[in-house]
Please model this.
Amino acid sequence: MELTCTGDLPLACRVWIDACEDLFRRAVEDGDTVPTVAPQVVAYLVVSSLAGIQMVSSVLPGRSDLISTGGWTRCGRCSSAGALPGLVPPDRRRKVTGLLDAAHRDPA
Model:
């Protein structure tokens, strides 16, 4: 894959990164993330992580891990238990954890 990348990011990637960056910028402004969060860096990390999960899934079990009920749920639990709460001030973690837990119960 590395050899196929030349020039700028594809438009789809840029749109997703920009959208995530806007969301993280609002979260910083609203106090929902620690003030040291760099929205552009976190957005790039989130989108890259999701793209990487899809790429690995496509070459390992033919995406069956993402299609099954456990695939995306496991990825989400990893995020909610590790990386995402680390971006949230301690006094707001319960709110974020509750939202993430609700999303895992009702993925629609």
